[in-house]
Amino acid sequence: MIKATQSSGKRRHSRDNVIYSESFSGGRQQYVNGAAAPDDFWKEWSQEEVHRNTQDLRLAARRSREHVVQMNLRYTMFMAFLVAAMTFSLIGYIKLKADISGTNKKIASLESQLTELRSSNNEVYNEITGNVDLEEIRNIAVNEFGMKYADQDQIVVYSESKGDSVHQIADLDH
After folding, report:
1. DSSP labels for 2-52?
2. What pTM, to 2 d.p., does this model score?
3. What is the pLDDT of residues 149-159, one digit of tens each?
């Protein structure tokens, strides 16, 4: 906050120690104590000072441009790397999608082949089992080959074990 005291058209701001006079008729204002431009601001510059300052400006501008070019080169290289990485990733992704699509088509083809083979297998099995007459087979076995039904003393009963197979311990009589 700026405190101003008014006395005879002059104001003094206690914050920045500036004294100025004002004319309410819109005239010129007079600045004192650092509010005005420095004394050496309007001095004339020698040709050498102007040349030195322009050289300094040119050198600073060149350094700035070199820095910008270097940063642009780094940025460009970084962006090129990102674009290349994204391109390779995208190509890999598209290739994987194509491979998956091809595999799915192959699976569908193999499933249809499996369905056809099962259908033809079932037809052949039904044809074979449908043409077999079990009574005729029994007659041929009994009459032509002399097969006899087993007597009670020829039947051997084995107890069921937990495994899938039965192990023969001794020879059986014929």
Report:
1. --EEEETTEEEETTTTEEEE--TTS---EE-TTSSPPGGGGSPPPHHHHHH
2. 0.38
3. 888 888 888 77
The owner of tokens 């004294």 is: 19
Extended beta strands in 22-165, E state? 30-31
Gap between the Cα atoms of 76 and 89, Å rounded: 20
Under 8 Å between Cβ of 11 and 22? yes
State what percent of residues in the chain have pLDDT above 70. 66
- Residue 131 pLDDT > 80: yes
Which residues have a Cβ under 8 Å from the Cβ of 147 and sit 6 or more positions away? 141
Residue indicated by tokens 């194509």: 98
Q: What's the rounded Cα separation, in Å, for the pair 17 and 34?
A: 9
CB 19 within 8 A of CB 33: yes
CB 19 within 8 A of CB 10: yes
Structure token pair of residue 96: 């994987």
Query: Tokens 């104001």, residue?
Result: 11
